[in-house]
Every structure is written in structure tokens, then in C-alpha cells.
From TrEMBL:
Its EC number is 2.3.2.27. CDD domains: RING-Ubox_PUB (cd16664). It catalyses: S-ubiquitinyl-[E2 ubiquitin-conjugating enzyme]-L-cysteine + [acceptor protein]-L-lysine = [E2 ubiquitin-conjugating enzyme]-L-cysteine + N(6)-ubiquitinyl-[acceptor protein]-L-lysine. SMART domains: ARM, Ubox. It comes from Stylosanthes scabra. This is RING-type E3 ubiquitin transferase. It comes from the Eukaryota. Residues 4-79 form the U-box domain. SUPFAM superfamilies: ARM repeat, RING/U-box. Pathway: Protein modification; protein ubiquitination. The lineage of its organism: Eukaryota, Viridiplantae, Streptophyta, Embryophyta, Tracheophyta.
Amino acid sequence: MAGELPEHFKCPISLEIMRDPVILSSGHTFDRSSIQRWLDAGHRTCPITKLPLPDQPILIPNHALRSLISNFTPLTPTPIPNPTPTRSQPQTLISTLTSQASSSSSKLDSLHQLTRLAKRDSLFRRRLSESGIVPPLLSCVDSHDHDSLRDNALSLLLNLSLDDHNKVGLVAEGVVSRLVAIISGTAAGTPSPDCRAIAATTLTSLAVVEVNKATIGAYPHAIESLVSLVRDGKGREKKEAATALYALCSFPDNRRRAVECGAVPVLLRSVDCGLERAVEVVGVLAKCKEGREQMERFHGCVQILSRVLRNGSSRGVQYALLALNSLCCGSEVASMDAIREGLLETCLAFLEDDNEKVRRNASALLQNLRGNNRIS
């Protein structure tokens, strides 16, 4: 299986398929365990660029790549005439997409070929973007009468977005408006759940770049459409929408936008229904005053987060503790609810957890519940 996966699915350090891809401040992605070992050994430079890193490097989860790896289906081996694409080959395929004389089937075949090549070659993705592929792809996304064209064009846009050099350019060329239209259901035709999931994943990928977080968050109905998809979506599309919100809400202004769109009750209900990715967004929204106020007003908020502490994964526990700590720091009512839920004992147990962030968040919450640093 590993031999069939694209090279960018492999960690540059271990050369193994990444299980938990994270982005270093240098912009490069590594498997969390590999880069953590590098940092624990005292290195404070990027293994690839050799540029210096902060004393406390931040590892940002690359949810878009993780989703691609988990949902990857190996292609049936087929002969590829030119394993290393020539400069003329993509132009021929692009010309097929732009020509009014091209049939839908020939356009679809061109998209399949371009996607297959782009999946496996980062240099080809960059060159493809520079060759003017984005406008014809957006035309396919706008297709009124061919869902397969739209779906395959969207998949290629997602692959192009994985290259950091392409992210800002894709936003500048108008990709966000199409993604929002698909997610919100205002696009032509009826986008499938998979199509909406891919659109949300593409937003997550684009939001890796800080300036794109601000641009996407400010785009009309972008955050609102993601909140609606978390509320009304099914399965993968709901999870990918929550992931996109998490990526966007690392930018402070977007937290307030999400709260104004009603994200807090939607996310808490989703957490209660088992969508653990939603608790990560709740943890981030708890960092803003407006988010905490909404949580205080939501009946059963502390109880829902307490259930994550009892039954969730290590990452879910980490963010539930983060949200509870932010909430209890400024709310006597929330603190009393937490104590009634037995969280003093729970936090004591987490002080021995293997996850350093769980231990740190549990210690902070324990101090709050014992009366330290209480905000009246």
C-alpha cells in the first residue's frame, strides 16, 4: 500500500506514511512523532530548510492532508505514457478543458489525467497552477449540467491547494466563492455530500496560510455555511466542515464571526452526538469572550464536555479541558457545575496522563476549580 501512495503522504524524516501530519512554522509538513523526536533532541531548525525555529515551536495539525491520506483509494495501475510530464502535455489537457468544441467526456478524461499526475508530483502541481489551469477548472466547477465535471475539477483544486506556493494564488483567483457556493447549497445543481466534504477540505487546506484565514473568514457566508454544514451535514461532510472551522478560528476575528453565526450551540450538540472534531472548535471558541458567554448560556455545556473527558480520545480530552478551563476561569456557575460533575477528581487523574498538553490543561483547570486565579 505504501508504495502506491503519493510521495507527499510520506514524512520527510521517517519516509513512512504520516499518521498525524503537522505543519512546522517553516511551512513544511511532518509526522508528529518524527518531528517531535527531532525537537526533543534539542534541534531548533527545520529539518528541510535548516531555518531557525522558535524556542517553543508550534505544531499545527494538517487536517487537509490527514483527510486525504485516510480517504485515499489506490488507483488501478494503468500505463502512463509520460511518467515525467513534458511542458506541452498539461497545456494540451488544459486546452481540452477550455475548448468549446471539447465533449464532456474528453474534458472528464483530461481532468482524470491531470489529477493523477498532480497527486504524485508537487513540482507538477506548482507548474500546473502557473500554466493557467485555475480559470478552466472554475468553469468546470460552475458547470450546470455535468456533476462529474464539477466533482473532478474540485478534486484537482484540492490537490493544487496542497502546495503552499499555490494557496494564496488560488484564493486570489476566486476559488473561495465556488467552495462557499457548494458548501452552502447555492451552487448550480445539487452537490453531493462528497462534493461538499471536498469543498470543506479545500478550505481547510487554503487556511493553512495566515493571510487566507482572514480572507476566507471575511468572505460573505463562508463561516456561516460551514456552521450550517456541521448542523445539517452527514458523516464525512460534517467532520470536514468542523475541521475547516477549526483551521479558520485560529484567527481571532473568525472566532467572533463563528459565534455570531450560532456556532457554539451547533458544535456542542454535535459533540454530544459523538463528533469529537467539534470539541476542538469549542476549545478554540472558548478563547474569546463572546464564545464563553454563549457556552455559559447553553444548558448542559459543562456536562457535555465532562462526558468527553470520560469517553473521548486524548486529543478530545485536551480540547475539552481547554474549553472548561476558559469557561470556569470566569464563571462561578460553570465552576460549580464542574465540581458537581466530579471534575476535581478527573483532573487529578489526568495529571498522570501521557499527553503533556492534557496534563497541563488538567493542572490549569484544577487550579481554577480550587479557587486560584478566579475571575469574579
